[in-house]
Amino acid sequence: MNETCYIDGFGPLPIVKPDGVASLGDLIRQAAARAAALYPVGGQTSISIGAPPSKAGQIVDLRALAKVIDFPARDMTVTVEAGITMKHLSNLLARENLRLPIDVPHADCATLGGILAANVSGPRRLGYGTLRDYVIGISALNDEGNEFKAGGRVVKNVAGYDLCKLLVGSFGTLGIITQATLKLRPLPELQTVLVLMGEPGQLEAILTSLHVSRTRPVCVELLNQAAARTVFAEAKLAVPDTSWVLLVGYEGNADAVAWQVQQLVKEVGKQRRIDGRIDFTAKPLCEAVVELAALPMIETTFKASILPSATAAFCQQVDREPQRPLVRAHAASGIVYGHWPSGLTLAQAASMLTTWRDLAVQGQGSVIVPRCPSAWKTTLSVWGQPRPDAWLMREVKAKFDPKGIFNPGRFVDGI
Amino acid sequence: MTTATATPLAERMRGIVGAGNVLSSASDLVVYECDGFTIEKNKPDVVVFPSSTEQIVAIVKACVELGVPFVPRGAGTSLAGGCLPVGGGVMIGLAKMKRILEVNYRDRYAVIEPGVVNLWLTNHLKPQGYHFAPDPSSQGACTIGGNVATNSGGPHTLKYGVTVNHVLGVELVLPDGRVVHTGGPVEDAPGYDLTGVIVGSEGTFGVAAKAWVRITRNPEAYRTLLGVFETVDDATNTISDIIGAGIIPGAREMLDSLILQAVEAAFRFGFPLDAGAVLIMEVDGLDAGLDQDAERIIEIAKKNNAREVRKANTDAERLLLWKSRKQAFGAVGRLAPSYCTQDGVVPRTKLPLILRFIQEMGAKYDLRIANVFHAGDGNIHPIILFDERDADQVKRVLNASHAILDECIRLGGSVTGEHGIGVEKIDFMPKLFTPDDLAMMVRLRTAFNPDNRCSPHKMLPTAGACIEQSKAGRRAAL
User: Which residue in B186, B436, B469 has the most chain A C-beta atoms within 10 A of its own C-beta, making it the best mutation to test that interface?
Assistant: First the structure.
């Protein structure tokens, strides 16, 4: 194997591409014997997340494991190998009028295994939940190179421990995910996005009125001016001239969507401007919002998880900082992202991170740094202070991967 | 465990929680010898009712020191022996920890103690238009701590998910007395989703002392329909077609002909006695859009040869349609002195196959088997009617039950959709999972419960375990 690659400046690490589960098992056994590490990757769309690797080893490219194992569309489940790209998967599902309702940027590159490991989510998590709500079965290879599974292929099943939950969001540190069975949803008849314009003093009032609205939005996305400018430009739409923009999404059957659009206009339309984008005109906007996190111009990203009720104040506060980021929030879920193009210095980033973390504590939450220049990672704590249950996480890691083969050093608390 | 060692144990427990919160006399303990799975019985040496996390910690530490096992218990409504005190020891009854500690509507969560009864929380939230989504049929009695342990389901799971989809965090007293707090009201806490594996661990990871749960807005409106079908196949095909059309009904309950006859004999709803199956279908959500869904459902039912489709036009009519379903169990009592049920799951499209198989097993073992279940998720609950005084019948019931569960596995399903493995189905675990699968589950348990002191001999097969499983001892419940 000649190809090599760096992860966060650590390397060069040779890339190996197993052609199946058997050869992946061999790789794991060899790594175990040599006390080396394996860094599993798919399309590398989430590779920037995490601390630098702590041990020499190999990168394992899983994209050759991309078979569709079983797609009983009428059961609304699908079983596929982990290396399949999300684009390929969603095209397959759409042919049967189905989907996995998870927003994934770079879907043409991102693999299912990668998004499971990184627990990728987007604006529509408000309406549909996250990956943990859709994985009903999972297979992975353990530290001995043997395949293990949990769950099954039926939507309701409580036999055995739910290792699906454990592996989703484990960043490849407990085993290498090889296959998953997903619960699916029907494609909605209609999609709509309403664009609400707001000024700083009004944000909490708008979010509260959405919270008590008779309508049931699937997303409530809050963008500051810089983020809105980028999103609307990407969608080739005129940029709203206001300091904050809210994108409120509705999906479902035509009657229900039409009623909700009218209802929201009735509820909040008197006080503020609303613009509606229905069906195909909504799509470019939805796509641009999902892709925002992955735009190549973004060099540094912070992600705060806080209480939804703290979101408006948090967003306004971080928007007042001197190095103003693109601020975007899944506002009803309490997830706030700040994106900076290049030009930020390490000192500025470090000071900003302190501000974010202080503010997040007030919202009972935390801040991670999913993306920044690799060199900064020795200074910035990308995962933040370990949570009080970190010791139990280390205990789980020690049981699953006692030799430290899988993605060592990259996850929380040095896992 | 002998009485001689039990007494100092009881004294120790009285020192922690006070004499009024400890049961140790044989007559008191008999109440706690089993849950809804009644065939395996074993009395704990002592039952303790703590009222705080600190007391749970003290109890657990005392158990470690004295070398006795312990098992948490909510209301004991579980159906697979999950709170059977295998090996005796201390039963930690959580019924007195029943406070709703916080409700935050703006951030859509509640913090509750484990002994809060499922329906209390929903009733508490009702004035604000919210509810706790998991609604097992025991919801008037079962505790949320028990729901967390067993990952309870209910009739609305296909649309709204099971308990794990609504639990945000847990405060857990580990089997060595340490307290760990996983997750919480804020989403996406960095690290492993420990909450996700604690839910459904059937009490084998420790004692939940507190839980953060999601609260859900109530649907604004319902449309309830009842379809009468010639055959079970037509009814199940209707469900598949409805879901295939992109409509996910909040509830879909199926009653087969044997149940119909019993219901009709008891309550005279006017069902045709020669019908093969009745399907109750309910869509819920915003009022707008529901008529569109309901019309589509009627169309699909008719295409699948529905003899008639009744639609409830008023709340009173809706309640009447549901009455036939809710009283089905009472009606079963008229058919036989005893009955037991199973909790198999198959992929939804395999429902006609498994129902035909169940019918064949009824013929083969000369048993009457009735079916009433939440049809949309493939979770079956065949009710086998028998007379427990007849040993030969009991044996045939067992054989038929095992054959049905084996067939569920063969069709790509599972042996439990919502009741759990407990002690009852341990023998099926090696049929569902490979030794490698089970070994990883043991590794996980070891991280939480290395000495297997908490709920020993549950869920995972243990070499040398001395429990005989799978007897026809469970009362039916859905």
Answer: B186
CATH fit for domain B221-323, picks 3.30.470.20, 3.10.450.50, 3.30.70.3450, 3.40.50.880:
3.30.70.3450
**A149–chain B nearest CA distance, Å:** 5
Structural domain B3-93, CATH architecture: 2-Layer Sandwich (3.30)
Q: Which helix (H) or strand (E) holds A118?
A: helix A112-118
Q: In angstroms, what CA-CA distances link B80 with A299, A316, B155, B207?
A: 53, 52, 19, 18
The yes-or-no answer to whether B3-93 and B100-217 have a common fold is no
Distance CA B191, CA A412 (A): 6
3-class DSSP assignment, residue A135: strand
Q: Each residue of B143-195: pLDDT tens digit?
A: 999 999 999 988 888 889 999 999 999 999 999 999 999 999 999 999 999 99
Q: What is the least distance, in Å, from the CA of A14 to any CA of chain B?
A: 28
CATH class of B336-410: alpha beta
Angle at B41 between CA B416 and CA B370, to 5 degrees: 40
Instruction: Measure CB to CB from residue B429 to each of A75, A157, A160 and give the nearest one.
Output: A160
**How big is chain B, counted in residues?**
478
CB contact under 8 A, A154 and B189: no
Whether B330 shows a pLDDT value over 80: the answer reads no
* C-beta of residue B243 within 8 angstroms of C-beta of residue B348: yes
Given CATH 3.30.465.10, say whether it is the number of domain A1-187+385-415.
Answer: yes
